[in-house]
C-alpha cells in the first residue's frame, strides 16, 4: 500500500513538472498552425431546465474573442425559464439561436437527441459541444482550443474543466470521484494513439465535423447516458486523433450542489462510463482498500495492542503495534498525496483530511451504479426516466 501511494506521489511530481496544462496564454509553436484562417465553429448547448445556469453559460461563450462562431441552445423540453432567458439574450446578439425540442423519440436520451437536432441545423467546420452548467472564465477559451486542436491535429479535443465546489459535500466527494476517473483514464494514456484508453468530458468538446460524421453522429450513441465517453471511444477506435487536456483559468463547472445530487450524478457517470460489474467492483475495491483500510489497520492495531497491555495477556502485542504503526504510515502517505492532488482539480488542500469520508460517498455511488446493471433498471436524469433493456 505504501508503494502505491509513493507511486502516486511520483505521478503528481511528473505531472507538475512535465504535465501540459492549457491556459489563455497558449500560442501554437507550429508556424503553419498560426497561419490557418479561423474556421467557422458551431457551439452547441443542450439545456433541460437550466434556468439557473444557462445565462452564465451563454454569456461567457458570447464574450469569446474568437471571430467566427455561432451558438445554438437546444432547449430540450424545459419547463422552467430556460427558453425565455435564451430568447432575451438572442435578441441582443445575432450569433445566438434558440432551438426548441418538443419531442423525445423512442430509444434516444434527451441530450443526445437535442444535440443531434442542433448540429444538423449548423454548418460549422468544427463543432464545439458544451454543457449548460459550464462557464468560460477566459475570453480566449475558444481561440486557444481551436489553435491547440489544429496544432496537435486533434479530431476531438476535450478540455477538462476546473471543478467549482462550494458546499461541504461537494468538496468531500468531487476530488475522490474525479480521482477514480483519473485512475482509469489518465490523460497521458488517452492521448497515446497506441493505447486503447478513451475519455472525454462533455463540459467542453471541440470536434471536426468530418470526424463527427465518421463516427456516426449522436445517432451512434443515442441511448447512452454518458455519450461523451462513448463518442471518445468511437473516435479512437476509428483511428482518429483524440486529445484530452487539463486547463487553468479557462473554464469551470459546478457539477452538483448537494449530497443527493452528487450521489445520483456520479452513480450515473460511473454506470455510463464503466458499464460492467467487473470495472465497478474493481473501482469499489480500490476505494475500500486504498481509502479505508489504513484507518481500519490503525484502529485494529492500536486497540489490540492497548488491550494486550491493559489485560496483561500474552499474545501478539508486537504484531498489533506493527499493524497500527503501518496503518498510521499509510494514512499519512495517503493524506499527503491527496493534499497535493486536490489543487489539481480546484479543491482546497485541507479537504484531504476528509478523504475517507469521500471514499465512502464514492463507494455508495458505485454500489448504486451496480444496481443499474440489472435488466429493467431505470435511470432518471433531468426528470426523464430511461429504462435498461
CA radius of gyration: 23 Å
Q: How much of the residues is beta strand, in percent?
A: 15-25%
Mean pLDDT value: 88
DSSP strand count: 13
CATH uppermost class of the largest domain: Alpha Beta
Assign the CATH topology of the largest domain. Spore Coat Polysaccharide Biosynthesis Protein SpsA, Chain A
* Number of domain units: 2
In the sheet with the most strands, the strands line up as 1-10-7-9-5-2-3-4
Shape: elongated
Which ranges are low-confidence, i.e. pLDDT below 50, for 5 or more consecutive residues? none
Overview of the molecule:
Strand 12 and strand 13 form a beta hairpin. This protein has helices spanning 2-18, 31-35, 54-62, 82-90, 110-120, 141-152, 168-184, 187-190, 209-214, 227-237, 259-274, 277-311, 317-341, 355-371; strands spanning 21-22, 41-47, 69-76, 96-101, 126-131, 134-136, 156-160, 162-163, 204-208, 242-247, 251-253, 378-381, 384-387. The protein folds into two domains: 19-161 and 201-257, Spore Coat Polysaccharide Biosynthesis Protein SpsA, Chain A, CATH 3.90.550.10; 277-387, no CATH class. An eight-stranded mixed sheet has the order 1-10-7-9-5-2-3-4, with helices on both faces. The protein has a three-stranded mixed sheet with strand order 6-11-8. The protein has a two-stranded antiparallel ribbon with strand order 12-13. It is α/β, with parallel strands linked by helices.
Amino acid at each position: 500500500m505504501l508503494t502505491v501511494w509513493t507511486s502516486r506521489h511520483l505521478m503528481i511530481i511528473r505531472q507538475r513538472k512535465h504535465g501540459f496544462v492549457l491556459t489563455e496564454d497558449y500560442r501554437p509553436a507550429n508556424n503553419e498552425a498560426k497561419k490557418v484562417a479561423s474556421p467557422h465553429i458551431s457551439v452547441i448547448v443542450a439545456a433541460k431546465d437550466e434556468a439557473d445556469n444557462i445565462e452564465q453559460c451563454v454569456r461567457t461563450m458570447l464574450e469569446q474573442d474568437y471571430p467566427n462562431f455561432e451558438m445554438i441552445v437546444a432547449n430540450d423540453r424545459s419547463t422552467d425559464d430556460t427558453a425565455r432567458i435564451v430568447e432575451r439574450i438572442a435578441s441582443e446578439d445575432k450569433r445566438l439561436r434558440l432551438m426548441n425540442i418538443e419531442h423525445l423519440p423512442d430509444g434516444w436520451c434527451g441530450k443526445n437527441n437535442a444535440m443531434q437536432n442542433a448540429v444538423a441545423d449548423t454548418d460549422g467546420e468544427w463543432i464545439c459541444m458544451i454543457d449548460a452548467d459550464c462557464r468560460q472564465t477566459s475570453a480566449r477559451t475558444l481561440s486557444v482550443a481551436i489553435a491547440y486542436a489544429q496544432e496537435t491535429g486533434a479530431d476531438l479535443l476535450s478540455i477538462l474543466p476546473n471543478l467549482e465546489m462550494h458546499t461541504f459535500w461537494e468538496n468531500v466527494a468531487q476530488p475522490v470521484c474525479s480521482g477514480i476517473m483519473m485512475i482509469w483514464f489518465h490523460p497521458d494514456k488517452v492521448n497515446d494513439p497506441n493505447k486503447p484508453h478513451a475519455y472525454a468530458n462533455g463540459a467542453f468538446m471541440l470536434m471536426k465535423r468530418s470526424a463527427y460524421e465518421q463516427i456516426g453522429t449522436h445517432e451512434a450513441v443515442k441511448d447512452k447516458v454518458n455519450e461523451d465517453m462513448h463518442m471518445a471511444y468511437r473516435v479512437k477506435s476509428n483511428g482518429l486523433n483524440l486529445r484530452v487536456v487539463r486547463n487553468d483559468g479557462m473554464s469551470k463547472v459546478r457539477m452538483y450542489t448537494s449530497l443527493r445530487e452528487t450521489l445520483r450524478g456520479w452513480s450515473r457517470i460511473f454506470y455510463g462510463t464503466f458499464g460492467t460489474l467487473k470495472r465497478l467492483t474493481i473501482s469499489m475495491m480500490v476505494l475500500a482498500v486504498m481509502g479505508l483500510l489504513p484507518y481500519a489497520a490503525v484502529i485494529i492495531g492500536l486497540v489490540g495492542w492497548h488491550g494486550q497491555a491493559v489485560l496483561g495477556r500474552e499474545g501478539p502485542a508486537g504484531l498489533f503495534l506493527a499493524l497500527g504503526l503501518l496503518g498510521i504510515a499509510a494514512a499519512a502517505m495517503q493524506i499527503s498525496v491527496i493534499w497535493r492532488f486536490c489543487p489539481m482539480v480546484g479543491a482546497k488542500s485541507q479537504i484531504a483530511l476528509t478523504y475517507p469520508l469521500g471514499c465512502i460517498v464514492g463507494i455508495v455511488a458505485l454500489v448504486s451504479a451496480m444496481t443499474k446493471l440489472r435488466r429493467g433498471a431505470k435511470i432518471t436524469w433531468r426528470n426523464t426516466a430511461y429504462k435498461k433493456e
